[in-house]
Structures are given as structure tokens and as C-alpha cells.
Specification:
- By secondary structure, the protein is mainly β.
- The protein contains no helices and 13 strands.
- The strands form 4 sheets. It has a 5-stranded mixed β-sheet with strand order 2-9-8-4-5, with no helix packed on it. Strands 1-3-7-6 form a 4-stranded antiparallel β-sheet, with no helix packed on it. It has a two-stranded antiparallel ribbon with strand order 10-11.
Length: about 170
């Protein structure tokens, strides 16, 4: 008869849940005035924990993880100088695995538009006005993000004169 008997209890945690990944900056569909900004994302996993050695940061499908500052709960990437983004639609992706190997991914798209709209006012500056009332033709064009639907404002020498003007916006079909 063997008198050496032992009870051993072990707890096994099965982790089938991916880590969460969220962007702080840029936000989805953001409109940025510059391609120079700080990309920031957070990640977490409540079961097995995140494996920070698996963090990957892609900007427009280019792996820039080497330039990122990876921390225990998030990652930052300073997009400036040679890493600043050109005007247009961009996409960033941050991924990380937890210690069980589950993959968490977040993707965000945004628009960089650093070019102000082009405004043309007719009659041109310096023109002689001989008839009243005066009609101005204001044309605004934007090749980037498009024009806002915000109400128009008229200012002369910095003074808001909108209430003295009748603003007519032709249909976009014209």
C-alpha cells in the first residue's frame, strides 16, 4: 500500500477573446488640416494580457512600428517630417496579440486637407462700381475635402455685414 497521496488543483483559463484596440487620434473619418500629427491608440486584454512585442502600426499599408513608442496599454507614432502624410484619404491600422495568441485590430480612415478653398469675388478689387445696388459674384472652389454646408458670412474690413447682403446659393447642378 502506497501512503504518498496528494491532491493537486490547477486552474485553467481558456482565452478565446481578442484584445480591444481603439484609436484616440485620429478619430474615424476625421478631417485634418495637416499631415503632421500624433497617432495614438490604446489596447487592453482582461484575460491573458497583451503581448506588446506583437504590436504593429501600419500607415497607408506601410509598417512604421519601428518609429512608434510602444507602451503597456497603448502606442504613439509621431507623424512629422518624412513621416508626415500628404493630402488625401489615409488609413492607419494598429494590431496586437494577447498572450494566448488572439489578434486584436483597429483601423481608422481620415482625410488630410491642408489647402484652403479658393475664393474669387467679382467685380475684382479695384473695379469701378457705377450702378446700385451692387451685385457681387462670389465663387468658392475646394479640390480637397469639399465645402461646408455652414451658412455664408460676409465681412468687410473684419466687420460682419451678413445682414446687409442677400446670399443666394445656386444649385450644384449649375
Amino acid at each position: 500500500v502506497n501512503a504518498n497521496v496528494a491532491d493537486v488543483t490547477r486552474t485553467l483559463i481558456v482565452d478565446l477573446t481578442s484584445p480591444t484596440v481603439t484609436f484616440d487620434a485620429p478619430t474615424p473619418f476625421a478631417l485634418l488640416r495637416s499631415g503632421t500629427f500624433l497617432l495614438q491608440a490604446r489596447y487592453a486584454d482582461s484575460l491573458s494580457g497583451v503581448d506588446t512585442g506583437t504590436v504593429q502600426v501600419l500607415v497607408n499599408a506601410v509598417n512604421l512600428t519601428f518609429f512608434a513608442q510602444v507602451g503597456g496599454s497603448g502606442v504613439q507614432l509621431d507623424l512629422q517630417g518624412p513621416r508626415s502624410l500628404p493630402d488625401g484619404v489615409s488609413s492607419t491600422e494598429v494590431s496586437i496579440r494577447d498572450r494566448a495568441g488572439n489578434l486584436g485590430v483597429a483601423v481608422v480612415q481620415f482625410l488630410v486637407d491642408s489647402v484652403a478653398p479658393e475664393v474669387t469675388i467679382l467685380p475684382l478689387n479695384g473695379s469701378t462700381i457705377t450702378a446700385f445696388p451692387v451685385t457681387f459674384d462670389v465663387r468658392i472652389r475646394d479640390s480637397g475635402s469639399g465645402l461646408s454646408d455652414a451658412p455664408a458670412m460676409v465681412a468687410i474690413s473684419g466687420v460682419n455685414m451678413t445682414n446687409r447682403f442677400q446670399v443666394e446659393i445656386p444649385s450644384r447642378a449649375q
